[in-house]
């Protein structure tokens, strides 16, 4: 490990956090100096044993304070919660210790949408401590927001963006299956949706980011989600019986002057047909991009986090993926 590498603290070692750890350890310009996870089953265990890869002789801590003190000037790679309010105390603690943060938190991708006052306060705190905070991943963070903004660089004014992402949940981790309500009956799903504990977090943040990146007005935001019911049994890690929830269909829309300017359509379902990612920009010239099979949500998200580290050390405040350079 290069002595001059950027000090990195890993916080959160679930499946995505472990993927982040393996990628960070493979980069000669980063130096993993500590790992933290609140789960009792992981605390005290060697990092390499938990992630299944060669790693420095680091024991996983349950409290980040010592790790933060040792890594001042470095970057925390935070893979814990999806909601801004959940991770805000963790972000504040890292910033006050003098560390920048790159996080998988979906709402952190564009927290000014629903948490404007709190996000502005966090922005000021990061500026005061001369560090940066970034939320990133593949969705939100790249395919439906940053990528459309880049494509908009080769067109005239964009009149409308349509983004489509179809994901076969049978290929994804168990935590995601539970997150989208797989295996629930329709009534239980509706109740969980009312509590905000099922569904994909971050689609409206992606829509807002895309609008900002394409120079489109952002007057009104709509977000709709419906459950998709299984037509046959599925004996996966979260079993599904016919008639139970197999996934979700979600649509986020941005309006300007009562006209739709952004429409993002997301389907995540067990056995979803024709997985793919697709972008269409109504502009001159028009642009259409298709990823047959779709981008790998887990590995791509982990890579997005790790690849952002060098750039984040050069930024200040609460930033978005639109502030990142186009290349590494």
Name its key features.
single chain, 328 residues, Rossmann fold, Dihydrodipicolinate Reductase, domain 2, 2 domains, 6-stranded parallel beta sheet
Task: Outline the structure in words.
This protein is an alpha/beta fold and about 325 residues long. It has helices spanning about 15-25, 45-50, 65-70, 85-95, 115-130, 145-150, 175-180, 185-195, 205-215, 295-305, 310; strands at about 5-10, 30-35, 75-80, 100-105, 130-135, 160-170, 220-230, 245-255, 260-270, 275-280, 285-290, 315-320. It has 2 domains: about 5-135 and about 300-325, NAD(P)-binding Rossmann-like Domain (Rossmann fold, 3-Layer(aba) Sandwich); about 145-295, Dihydrodipicolinate Reductase, domain 2, CATH 3.30.360.
Number of E strands: 12
Biggest sheet overview: 6 strands, parallel
- What is the H/E string? EHEHHEHEHEHEHHHEEEEEHHE
Shape: globular
Please state roughly what percent of the residues sit in beta strands, choosing from under 5%, 5-15%, 15-25%, 25-35%, 35-45% or over 45%: 25-35%
Termini separation comes to 20 Å
Radius of gyration of CA atoms, rounded to a whole number: 20 Å
The appropriate CATH architecture of the largest domain is 3-Layer(aba) Sandwich
CATH homologous superfamily designation of the largest domain: NAD(P)-binding Rossmann-like Domain
Strand numbers in spatial order across the main sheet: 2-1-3-4-5-12
CATH topology of the largest domain: Rossmann fold
Q: Given this structure, which CATH class of the largest domain is correct? A: Alpha Beta
Counted up, domains total 2
- So what's the oligomer here? single chain
């Amino acid at each position: 490990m290069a002595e001059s590498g950027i000090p990195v603290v890993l916080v959160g070692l679930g499946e995505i956090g472990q993927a982040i750890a393996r990628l960070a350890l493979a980069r000669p310009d980063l130096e993993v100096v500590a790992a933290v996870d609140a789960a009792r089953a992981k605390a005290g265990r060697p990092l390499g044993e938990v992630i299944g890869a060669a790693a420095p002789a680091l024991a996983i801590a349950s409290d980040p304070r010592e790790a933060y003190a040792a890594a001042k000037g470095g970057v925390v790679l935070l893979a814990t919660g999806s909601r801004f309010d959940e991770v805000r105390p963790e972000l504040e603690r890292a910033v006050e210790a003098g560390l920048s943060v790159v996080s998988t938190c979906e709402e952190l991708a564009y927290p000014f949408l629903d948490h404007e006052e709190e996000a502005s306060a966090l922005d000021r705190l990061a500026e005061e401590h001369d560090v940066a905070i970034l939320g990133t991943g593949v969705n939100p963070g790249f395919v439906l927001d940053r990528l459309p903004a880049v494509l908009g660089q080769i067109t005239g004014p964009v009149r409308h963006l349509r983004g489509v992402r179809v994901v076969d949940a049978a290929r994804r981790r168990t935590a995601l299956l539970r997150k989208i309500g797989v295996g629930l009956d329709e009534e239980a799903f509706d109740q969980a949706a009312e509590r905000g504990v099922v569904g994909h977090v971050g689609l409206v943040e992606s829509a807002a980011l895309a609008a900002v990146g394409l120079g489109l007005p952002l007057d009104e935001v709509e977000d709709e989600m419906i459950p998709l019911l299984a037509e046959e049994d599925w004996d996966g890690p979260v079993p599904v019986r016919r008639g139970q929830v197999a996934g979700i269909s979600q649509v986020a829309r941005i309006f300007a002057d009562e006209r739709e300017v952004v429409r993002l359509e997301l389907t995540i379902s067990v056995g979803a047909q024709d997985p793919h990612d697709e972008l269409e920009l109504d502009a001159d010239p028009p642009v259409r991009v298709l990823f047959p099979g779709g981008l790998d949500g887990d590995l791509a998200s982990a890579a997005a986090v790790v690849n952002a580290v060098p750039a984040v050390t050069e930024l200040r405040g609460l930033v978005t993926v639109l502030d990142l350079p186009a290349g590494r």
